[in-house]
């Protein structure tokens, strides 16, 4: 399945967000996406849900401005892909996979806190 086909179930499946004051937010305020999500149907769907979108348009805009937002996600996915068990699914049982994702995320977070970046 192409990523753009999974956008609606992904956004619909976001649980309510706790806030300190006021009612719980039921959806994100805005969404940043690259040219793979440039579809009139998705733009209308997001607008109907009250979600502002920042999607680069094919042939018109450059994705350079979105790079600073996307880099965090791409970096995290590459960190997870560095774990051998997650790169290819070696597990026979599907319920083991989320457990290994949790372990990998914990190790990544620990390494990030234990070794400060020099930049």
UniProtKB/TrEMBL annotation:
For bias type Basic residues, the affected ranges are: 18-30
**InterPro entries reported for this sequence:** Transposase_11
The Transposase IS4-like domain covers 2-104
Question: Would you tell me the protein name for this molecule?
Answer: IS5 family transposase
Pfam families for the chain: DDE_Tnp_1
PANTHER family for the chain: BLR1914 PROTEIN (PTHR30007:SF1), PHP DOMAIN PROTEIN (PTHR30007)
The protein's organism comes out as Streptomyces amritsarensis
Which superkingdom is the protein from?
Answer: Bacteria
- Annotated region Disordered: the residues are 1-35
